[in-house]
Amino acid sequence: MTTHEIRQKYLDFFVFRGHKLVPSASLLPENDPTTLFTGSGMQPMVPYLLGETHPKGTRIVDAQKCFRSQDIDEVGDNRHTTFFEMLGNWSLGDYFKKEQVAWMFEFLTHELRLDPYRLYVTVFRGNAQVPRDEETVGYWKDAFASVGVSAKDVDFSKRDGMQGGRIFYYDEKKNWWSRSGSPEKMPVGEPGGPDSEMFWDFGIERGLHEKSAFAKDVCHVNCDCGRFAEIGNNVFMQYKKTATGFELLPKANVDFGGGLERLASAVLDDPDMFLIDVFHLAREVIEQKSNTTYSSLGHASLGIAQRASRPTGEAHRSYAFRVILDHLRAATFLVADGVFPSNKDQGYYVRRLIRRAVRFANTIGVQGAFCGAVAQAYVREYTAAYPELAEKEKTIIEELTKEETKFKASLGKGLKEFEKLFTRSSAVSGVDAFNLYQSYGFPWELTEELAREHGQKIDRAVFQSEFSKHQDLSRSGSGQKFAGGLADHSDKVVRLHTATHLLHQALRSVLGSHVQQKGSNITPERLRFDFSHPQKMTDDEKQRVEAIVNEQIKKDLPVHFEILDLDEAKRRGAIGLFEDKYAQLGGKIKVYFIGGDVSVESFSREVCGGPHVEKTGELGRFKIQKEEAVASGVRRIKAVLD
Question: Domains, the chain, ranges and CATH?
């Protein structure tokens, strides 16, 4: 059964059960400025899961193209990819747990003919606020019993292992979904619910756990060793956060997402995802260009320590093949959706994908231009499912080839300079890394990889500092631009700047945690604050935001900052531009807190460079003058302090 047949079987299965088929959305999200790419199947469906009426009804099915830029560094083992297809079906206030569990079990065991004895399931354990999801457990037991399989439910613990179970209870870190994460992080009014994940067992006899970096741990279905692969997740959105806990939503939703490539690996019964059929043509091109063959050596998952020092020999060849196969597939689809290689925004990631592919191709002896040929193989493979690839084939090949040629021209010179650095007695510095970037176009990630292979670690903070100096010089001729969005550091501007922190948090409290700052501009007369939100604010919402801000001003809360590590800042709930211009303090960032002491949680925690007032009581009365659209999915508030 081919990957394309699996996709079609899934779509047909749910269309037959009353679902309306919708086409894949673009990899560039519409009306969502909070993210650069469509990274999940449910992302385009969020408005409908939150209550909007879908034009095609209450039962929807699709296969969605996805790209996750954060997974670039994970690629190289046998199952991580940046681009993938997510199969999805949704019930928008229609059917619920009983139907979804029965249908998914039928699809997996009957349509795909997967052995039910090798299927495992996880469910929500429950906590002090939300009960254990025993309802879903009951439906899974019925499903397994229908084919003669006894499904024991077990509360998983690392001490006791799997205990012969087939259904496992995990906490909210594994089996709960909301846009904000775990239940305690959800704001009042936010919907969420338990989820139930499905796993395929590639078999204990392969010894994948023992061969991996996780052998010292107890193996279980959520282990990273590679024995088990998550092939689908049923999200049951049935609760709403309240001031006192949780209550049931008037209409509960189902959101299923299943990775097509992982399902294909399960059907093939091989844990190496890069052996499924959609990679065949592209893999043959690389084999011809490199005069070598792909080996699935290294089925076991790479642990963190293993990723820190790249594999060598045959294992490296496997690693390089996978990087090339993944990156050029992703670049092919991204260019087809209108993202061309560049040095900013989405285009930066396309450039990085192509350059990493070229870099790894060099290490396995690929001769001549190859990116266009690999892209052409993917166009042939996917055209039936995604006709736009054939329509954009010429552009795809031209863009990938142009970027490959450009990078190769500088790569040769840059590599020579790079090797010269290791003839010195001193270590390669962040300044050296920046010079390679400025002179030869070496992105930080590439220099970091080359240095790692020589057993060195380069200080990223120094590189970032040099990069920031370069940016400052580039901006020096633009005298009309405000520093950090501030016209000056006068008392009036500082007061208004502090008020933006209160405004930001108030907007998140009223509208939801999707709200993020998209820009600001402050003069002595007023503040202007741009933020992500898909629709016009109502008068009631604006009044509530004003009231919250003025309440915090009336409390005369203290304002202070702390210099924190990035992980610590995130752990403490700070919001803001973590990896951007403020992350220059030796790898640390400045976080401003408004309110809070040893007994009371702060109202606002935000990454910022300052300046601010010492107490909110200095601000005066906050008043919104205007709320308007700026761009698709971006709103703007203009406000003053009386």
Answer: 3-268 (3.30.930.10), 280-421 (no CATH), 430-451+459-481 (no CATH), 491-641 (3.30.980.10)
